[in-house]
Amino acid sequence: MKVAIVSPLIESVPPKLYGGTERVVSYLCEELVRQGHDVTLFASGDSITRAQLRPMVERSLRLDRSCHNPNSHHVVMVDRIVEAASEFDILHFHLDYCHFPLVRRLGLPSVTTMHGRLDLPEFVHTYSYFHDVPLVSISDAQRAPIPHNHWVATIHHGLPRDLYLFQPDGGSYLAFIGRISPEKRPDRAIAIARRAKMPLKIAAKVDAVDREYFEAQIRPLITGADVEFIGEIDDVAKRDFIGNARAVLFPIDWPEPFGLVMIEAMACGTPVIAWRCGSVPEIMVDGETGYVVQSEDEAVEAVARVHELDRRRCRDVFEQRYTVERMARNYVDVYARQAGSDERLRVA
Predict the structure, then answer these.
(1) DSSP line for 108-177
(2) Class of the 174-321 domain?
(3) CB neighbourhood size of 209 (10 A)
(4) CATH code at 2-158+323-345
């Protein structure tokens, strides 16, 4: 199939450091090419891919200090993609909603993967208005705020099998990785680790919008040798960081749409102690790939019992459910259906 993959321009594909959406886009592009599809990636010019790259900006916008309004670049990109739409069997967007009016009015064969939360009131309003545009959810839980939209599939994320190596022996520390923000609850991770009397290492990005929260609420908690703040790390460092941990703490306080860190940990064989929010019960196998908890007390108890889990079983669940081969096959099935049913998008 001739597939256009449309990525956000904030990060490169793959991202240099943090960037869940662009990371998944990269995994999907490379696997579709490996499976023999003709793939064109619309992304920033500093992206690296075996697909045909059509750069929409010179470099990722997060690294471009001259960029003050990323939305303007995305509007131009959408117009350029619509202009080239006849070259492709399917347009696969990863842009939230900015392209909805055009794909709906022009009846373009498309599908949009939703990567973020959908429960905010303005999102519910917008997505409900464009209820007929074909969407893919990354978990069934993600659909809850807009259950009546045109969901064509739920496709869980997948990782390359050899991206993370199985580590049979966990280390002596707990890990928190991802992004520093109130909904990710790094404060809760610190409290759990201290009560469990285990060192905590934090490898996380601090966005500008969360800098004040970090300085006021989190930095004062990072005192003593028991909590180490490493900062943002790349993929190579992440492999050892996750693989050598006794467990990963995922104490979220929001409707997590997927949670890539959970399957990254599974791939390493590292159990996850995660809060029962959003997709967590759907992605985790409680008692096998870690523990799903609902309180700090339960989390501390889970840390004490994490040595009872079989790290090989964590890796087995990853190989059975969360590989990029499975993810790509599921998307190809969606592409085939949508490429032959573009009439459903036409507005009378």
Answers:
(1) --EEEE--S---SHHHHHHHHHTTTS-EEESSTGGGTTSTTS-EEEE----B-TTTS---SS--SSEEEE
(2) alpha beta
(3) 8
(4) 3.40.50.2000
Matching residue, tokens 């993959």: 5
In the chain, CATH 3.40.50.2000 sits at: 2-158+323-345, 174-321
Quick check: 269 and 167 in contact, CB under 8 A?
yes
Long-range contacts of 70-73 (CB under 8 A, 24+ apart): 70/9, 70/10, 71/98, 73/9
What are the distances in angstroms from CA 323 to CA 52, 222, 238, 240, 266?
A: 23, 36, 18, 20, 11
CA pair distance 104, 97, nearest whole angstrom = 11
Q: Are 253 and 238 contacting, i.e. CB atoms less than 8 angstroms apart?
A: no
Residue that the structure tokens 């507005």 belong to = 347
pLDDT band at 341 (very low <50, low <70, confident <90, very high): low
Which tens digits make up the pLDDT trace of 208-261?
A: 899 999 999 999 999 878 999 999 888 789 999 999 999 999 999 999 999 999
> 165-189 burial, b for 16+ CB within 10 Å, e for fewer?
ebbeebbebbbbbbebbeebbbbbb
Report the distance separating Cα 186 and Cα 208, nearest Å.
17
Q: Which two tokens stand for residue 306?
A: 């994490």
Distance CA 264, CA 310 (A): 16
pLDDT tens for each residue of 2-27: 999 999 999 999 988 767 899 999 99
